[in-house]
Design a protein that fits this description.
It is a single chain. The chain is 56% helix and 13% strand. The protein contains 13 helices and 9 strands. Strands 3-2-1-4-5-6 form a 6-stranded parallel beta sheet, with helices on both faces. It has a 3-stranded mixed beta sheet with strand order 7-8-9. Helix 1 packs parallel to helix 6, helix 8 (161-189) crosses helix 10 (209-219) and helix 8 packs across helix 11. The model has no long low-confidence stretch (mean pLDDT 96).
Length: 286
């Protein structure tokens, strides 16, 4: 039986995908409405973290931030059986991950970091990308399960490596959204349409996931319904600047990008779709 803790947009998608793959899932979330949603799908819900920990030898976490991951593991850890493998798919902090991995090793279980990209749709359809850090033997054991949940699956390195790479990935996405928004304004002033700009950029070396996916899927059609919010991206950008501070390095471009995402609060609250940063950049130069 697979344990799943955290039943939000991503965790709820995992439930759907795993049940479609004929996996037996035992779920837990502190929110009654989240529990009710997965029960309506036919999933089982544990009465407590203790019950889930005792019942499952593979457990997936999908939680909002490092502090919550740490709190959940403090309650869950004492109830885990030897050999249990916990995979944290949250976008968390590498230092927290390393600390939890050490605690796991000292107590006979494994803690892997496996953050994901692809949003709620990717979670539901098994098309996410997952980058994993941690013990290679533990990864090999859970790989068949993770392959059912992902389109791309990579073991990156030791504990914390997955979360470090995910922080870098999301910072690059945040930067590319800002830069593509500025290039769109420049093109418009020069009499070039957004469609023409994207066609040219996507044929050249400046293309990115933002220009190839985000713009046509959520921006040019004004859908803005990716399922990933401004608040989540602001958190992830903050993780990048925080990691740089702890590593004692200066990242000037990162600091500028982070400032833009923070300044956008005057127009876009945390619940807005993160692609709407395009509107902010467009308005700021109107």
């Amino acid at each position: 039986m697979i344990g799943l803790i955290g039943l939000g947009a991503m965790g709820g998608g995992y439930v759907t995908r795993l049940m479609e793959q004929n996996c037996e899932v035992l779920c837990f979330d502190t929110m009654p409405e989240a529990r009710a949603r997965v029960q309506a799908k036919g999933a089982s819900v544990a009465a407590s973290l203790e019950v889930l920990g005792l019942a499952c030898k593979t457990i997936i976490l999908s939680l909002p931030k490092a502090a919550i991951v740490e709190a959940v593991m403090a309650e869950l850890g004492p109830h885990l059986r030897p050999g249990t493998i916990v995979i944290d798919t949250s976008t968390s902090e590498p230092d927290t991950t390393k600390r939890l991995s050490t605690i796991a090793s000292d107590n006979g279980y494994h803690f892997l970091d496996g953050p994901v990209s692809g949003g709620p749709l990717g979670a539901r359809t098994g098309t996410m990308t997952m980058v994993v850090g941690g013990d290679e033997d533990a990864f090999a054991k859970v790989r068949p399960l993770l392959e059912k949940m992902t389109g791309k699956l990579l073991h990156i390195g030791p504990s914390g490596a997955g979360h470090t790479v995910k922080i870098a990935n999301n910072l690059l996405c945040a930067a590319n959204l800002v830069l593509m928004g500025e290039m769109a304004q420049m093109a418009e002033r020069a009499g070039i349409s957004l469609a023409e700009l994207l066609a040219g950029v996507n044929a050249g070396s400046g293309r990115s996931g933002v220009s190839e996916v985000n713009f046509p899927k959520w921006i040019t059609n004004e859908a803005y319904d990716s399922g990933f919010t401004m608040g989540l991206m602001r958190k992830d950008v903050g993780l990048a600047t925080g990691l740089a501070d702890r590593l004692g390095i200066s990242l000037p471009a990162t600091e500028v990008i982070a400032a833009i995402w923070e300044q956008s609060r005057d127009m876009l609250d945390d619940s807005a779709d993160f692609n709407e940063i395009y509107k902010y950049r467009k308005r700021s130069n109107a």
